[in-house]
Amino acid sequence: MSAPRRIRVGAVNYLNTKPLIHGLAERAPQAELVLDLPSRLAMRLAAGDLDVALIPSIECFGDPTYSIVSDACIACQGPVLSVKLFSRVSPESIRTLALDEGSRTSAALVQILLDERFGIRPALAPLPIGDSLAQTDADAVLLIGDRAIHSPCEPFTAVWDLGDEWCRWAELPFVFALWTARAGVDLDGLDVALAEARDLGLQNLDKIATHEAAPLGLTQPECLAYLRDNLHFTFGPRERRGLARFYELAAARALAPQGVDLALDDCTPSR
């Protein structure tokens, strides 16, 4: 008799994801964890190479057959620290914008904020993974993830924490990534396990920070403060309203397809 098929689950190997996957092997032995960049996870989910993935929230709008399968998420209710815009000119003067290759949700977010606040739509260019800010002459650069946490040596006219900018402007949380399944996947209890893994991770933030800090050039208290104070891991009612607002603004700018039913009332599994 052949072994039952394991569920291929994709996530990123960033610090902000560690609390969500810290206890996943224990809670979901049926899952095979695959690590990749956020944008690549979305492509692999669309191609059927993954069954469930923690994909950028902008990608959840792209396929009407997708379903959000857990109330575990990556969100913020204020400064997020790991998503930043570094501008060499005043924000209202930005004409060229380099976007971190690993970003899709944050790329849409920064375009929305610049348009809403200043009515500008800068020309866009990619910033490949591994390239530094010095390797682009764009007016502004969007960085995400662990490398955004460290302040670059170059002086900048303005530095935006995009989580803080959104939360102040929209007066709602911002949701960066959600556990999403493609159509027809038998979750075999994975939906519940993802929430349980999140809960276990939150109970072990000290342990996670101790393990992750040094490789990232952070102290343990800095790492713990980031996980505890800058991030929010529950997709609750206000997060749903924030996601709906983000979708509305993205769709109005052709950054997401029109007419998507987010079905947010049905996305949280019972436990």
Describe the structure.
The structure is a single chain. This protein is α/β, with parallel strands linked by helices and 271 residues long. It folds into two domains: 7-77 and 175-266, D-Maltodextrin-Binding Protein, domain 2, CATH 3.40.190; 83-170, Periplasmic binding protein-like II (D-Maltodextrin-Binding Protein, domain 2), CATH 3.40.190.10. It is built from eleven helices and eleven strands. It has helices at 18-21, 24-27, 38-47, 57-60, 105-118, 146-149, 162-170, 190-203, 205-212, 220-230, 237-252; strands at residues 7-11, 31-35, 52-56, 67-76, 83-87, 96-100, 123-127, 140-144, 158-161, 174-181, 232-234. The strands form two sheets. Strands 2-1-3-10-4-11 form a six-stranded mixed β-sheet. It has a five-stranded mixed β-sheet with strand order 7-6-8-5-9. Helix 9 packs across helix 10. The longest helix is centred in the last third of the chain and has 16 residues, at 237-252. The protein is globular. The two termini are 32 Å apart. The model has no long low-confidence stretch (mean pLDDT 91).
CATH class of the largest domain: Alpha Beta
- From the helix content, strand content and strand pairing, which structural class follows? alpha/beta
Distance between the termini: 32 Å
Trace the largest sheet across and list its strands: 2-1-3-10-4-11
Number of strands: 11
Oligomer classification? single chain
Contiguous uncertain segments of 5+ residues: none
CATH homologous superfamily heading of the largest domain: Periplasmic binding protein-like II
Total tally of structural domains? 2
| Mean pLDDT value | 91
Report the radius of gyration as a whole number of Å: 18 Å
Largest sheet data:
6 strands, mixed
Task: Please state roughly what percent of the residues sit in beta strands, choosing from under 5%, 5-15%, 15-25%, 25-35%, 35-45% or over 45%.
Answer: 15-25%
At CATH level 3, the topology of the largest domain is: D-Maltodextrin-Binding Protein, domain 2
Structural shape? globular
The percent of residues in helical segments reads 25-40%
- Quickly give the CATH architecture of the largest domain: 3-Layer(aba) Sandwich
Number of helices: 11
Element-level helix/strand string: EHHEHEHEEEHEEHEHEHHHEH
